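Same chain as my last thread, 232 residues:
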Amino acid sequence: MDGQPQGPDSYIWGRSVDNIRIERLWVDVVRGVVNKWHVFFQQLEQFDGLDVENSTHLWVLHHLFLQQINDDLHEWANMWNEHPMSIDRNNRDISSRTAESPLTMYTYGMIKNGARGFLVHAQDDQPESVPQDELQDYGVDWAAREQPQVRRSRRLDNPEEAKDGPQIGPRRPSRFSEVHVVPPNAPDIQGFIPALDQRLERSLGHQSTNMEGRRLLWIDALSHLREVTATV
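reply #2:
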């Protein structure tokens, strides 16, 4: 975190390695959702004809699975928001008898302190002053920094840290994380998409939510693609 946000277009920067809470969340997201799809696509490439250099194959993947991936992420997020937090009962805000979840903590916080968020305008135009010594350790969970999963995630996502050493405290990052993805174009074949969708509706993997059913869906889609392109 660096400085105080000023206005709706402000940006709070700081590497996630200085915010162990988000590092731990990334570890949970990878374990809960990302790994499953990562392994799935690797298996399609190894056994079922996926060519990651073929833009048409990538378009088919988007067509088949992009919405399913987003659905998985939303389902995981809803489950995570409801999971009980490991907070000592003496430090709970709502009730010492009931474990708090991120959702109940967020809701109770708005009831207690008033509405807040990206769409809520500040009542006071003057930003609250935060002492610099508090900014130095903002978001750092020192115990979590030593957890193997967090250290591995931090090392993989921030290779420059091994060279520069850990940086704690506010500073402008040398680079901002960016993943530039160019959406692949659909095959330029008349009637291809409606015909593909009709084929998929007859697939054994249609509307399947398990990975084996999704594999069958890919196999049927690839078979249709090969049949159509062979006649063009």
